[in-house]
Write a structure and sequence with these properties.
4 domains, Serine Threonine Protein Phosphatase 5, Tetratricopeptide repeat, Double Stranded RNA Binding Domain, 5-stranded antiparallel β-sheet
Length: about 575
């Protein structure tokens, strides 16, 4: 690289690349440049491209600059460019800013402006998800660039017992993360000096996944898993993918067309093993496989880390404490008591921080879930308030996937699925791992059509989060789609799975009653209807007329296609009549 890299930064399309520090920043909605989580190889490639904007840079030139004197497969470059595009092209119209010239190389097509480093603002540590924190000193005050810190400053002592992974190997394995530089040598305290500023509550170090096979040419896949996980984890609210609270490690092993990925989450302060999983797959499409595995790990870690952090004792809870506890309560199996607990905790968070878009979104979420799954006398008021909270959250934080999801949920509860779907789609654009958004689009498809699209969307949610606390609801929706298409046996299979996952969902029993009755199995149909009446807590199952009056059913405005309303009549309601439910 030329002299620019040591004295200047580069500005392009809302990004700022500081090549000397080895950090890529993105301007957030407040106009502040916040660092992005990105692998070091991808950052090096970006540095090569922005040095020659508009010009073709050959693959050979890039390989020599990024992997000097090393024999690596071309696929390594493909993986890293793909990772770059996921970051740089997020929300960009008009194609990628990295243009591929087939058979030759790449061209960086975005306009680039050089800026003097002295004019740049002090960086702000942020994951881009609302958990900003100031960096203690800028690079000059530290006296060494972040990139050079990776080389191995002697570790400093930690106030708590050192996790065995941190000794010796730290400087070598953390090189795949740009912003982990101070941690790479055990020097995480340089980012939060003194007692005044603590590391963020949900903070993690992603150790580069090891290539456990005998072929070093397969390292690119392990690197890709590490890079994708770093990006996905950085999208989780309050997650800081740098610090010392948790450690994620794993490995990749490939044999022919067979691939095994292992991952383990460790509490770095107690050495407790919080979570572990193994993924065995045929290779097939490696990029699709990499996306599936990293998405599943990121979603699982979100659940596990929030639950672990919420369980830590706190003498004087603040808004974030209540948010974490509320999220942990919300992710328990759906029930009236769990909904009430989560609502109470989010109310406390809002009392301490009335402007918190996250607390507004989460409270709206739980209010709608309670209204739909466990209706009370306050149901209509809950739905109205949820809509107001979600609108305020989106206005305050337009780039929050959670806020858009909450607004979609509120619109769906208001029977406006056509308006809810774009909100869910926005949430997925902002967070590709938003399993609930995929599932809720599928839910809307059941009411506005086409029903055939509902099942694949639920299946996508299940693939992303196979241990999700709401998975029983997703199983139910697959069964519902099968029932409406008169596939009774398949419907019963999925309703049974839903009941096993969460026995407290009253509507599952109602659909089982209808399905058994349609098959002529009167005894189980009657038993399921009795159980549905017991669990519902109201009189909705006293008659067909009453059920239609308080539900989505039988109202033409609830269906995008009148044929869907007819399907409910010929399947669900016909079965309930056969199970013994009176008309009036």
């Amino acid at each position: 690289m030329d002299a620019h890299s040591s004295t200047e930064g580069s500005l392009f399309e809302g990004f700022r690349l500081d090549q000397r520090a080895g950090v890529l920043f993105r301007r957030n909605e407040r106009g502040v440049f916040a660092p992005m989580a990105i692998g070091s190889r991808a950052l090096d490639i970006l540095g090569v491209l922005v040095e020659r904007p508009g010009n073709l840079v050959s693959r050979a030139e890039i390989m020599e600059a990024v992997w000097p004197g090393t024999a690596v497969e071309d696929s390594n470059l493909n993986v890293q460019v793909a990772a770059l595009r996921r970051i740089l092209d997020d929300g960009r119209a008009g194609g990628s800013c990295i243009q591929t010239v087939p058979g030759r190389g790449y061209r960086f097509v975005a306009p680039v402006t050089r800026v003097e480093r002295a004019a740049s603002p002090a960086p702000v540590l942020s994951t881009g998800n609302g958990s900003d924190g100031l960096m203690a000193e800028n690079e000059q005050a530290q006296g060494v660039s972040l990139r050079r810190q990776i080389g191995g400053i002697a570790p400093v002592s930690r106030p708590k017992r050192r996790h065995p992974l941190w000794g010796g190997v730290m400087a070598a394995v953390i090189g795949a993360l740009v912003l982990v530089a101070a941690v790479a040598a055990g020097n995480w305290r340089s980012l939060w000096p003194g007692d005044a500023r603590q590391a963020p509550r949900l903070s993690i170090v992603v150790l580069p996944f090891a290539n456990l096979g005998s072929d070093p040419g397969q390292q690119y896949f392990a690197d890709g898993v590490t890079a994708d996980l770093t990006i996905d984890l950085s999208r989780i609210a309050h997650m800081f993918v740098i610090s010392h609270s948790y450690v994620l490690e794993g490995g990749v092993q490939r044999s022919g067309n067979y691939l095994r990925v292992t991952a383990e989450l460790i509490d770095a302060e107690t050495d407790a093993h919080l979570w572990a999983d193994r993924f065995d797959r045929d290779t097939g499409d490696l990029f699709a496989l990499q996306n599936e595995i990293t998405s599943r790990i990121a979603v699982a870690l979100n659940l596990e880390m929030v639950a672990a952090e919420a369980a830590r004792p706190t003498r004087q809870p603040d808004a974030l404490d209540y948010i974490l506890r509320g999220r942990a309560a919300m992710w328990k199996p759906p029930s009236r008591n769990n909904s009430a607990e989560a609502i109470s905790l989010f109310e406390r968070a809002l009392a301490l921080d009335p402007g918190s878009a996250e607390a507004q979104s989460l409270l709206a979420n739980v209010l709608v879930n309670r209204a739909l799954d466990f209706p009370t006398s306050s149901t209509s008021g809950d739905i109205k308030r949820a809509g107001e909270l979600a609108t305020r959250a989106v206005t305050a934080s337009p780039h929050s996937a959670l806020a858009h999801f909450a607004r979609g949920l509120a619109l769906r509860a208001q029977r406006r699925c056509d308006k809810a779907i774009p909100e869910y789609e926005t949430a997925i654009t902002l967070n590709r791992n938003y399993a609930g958004a995929f599932a809720d689009i599928g839910r809307c498809k059941i009411f506005v059509g086409p029903i055939a699209e509902a099942i694949p969307l639920q299946e996508q949610a299940i693939r992303i989060s196979p241990r999700d606390p709401f998975i029983g609801i997703w199983y139910f929706r697959i069964g519902q789609a099968h029932l409406l298409q008169s596939r009774i046996d398949e419907a019963i299979l999925w309703f049974d799975k839903a009941r096993s996952a969460n026995p407290g969902l009253w509507y599952v029993q109602a659909y089982l009653a209808s399905s058994y009755a349609l098959k002529g199995e009167t005894e189980p149909a009657t038993a399921e209807l009795v159980e549905a009446r017991k669990l519902s807590g109201d009189d909705r199952f006293s008659s067909i007329t009453r059920l239609k009056a308080i539900g989505f059913f039988g109202m033409s405005e609830n269906f995008g296609d009148p044929k869907i309303g007819a399907l409910f009549e010929t399947t669900y309601f016909a079965g309930l009549r056969k199970a013994g439910m009176p008309e009036e």
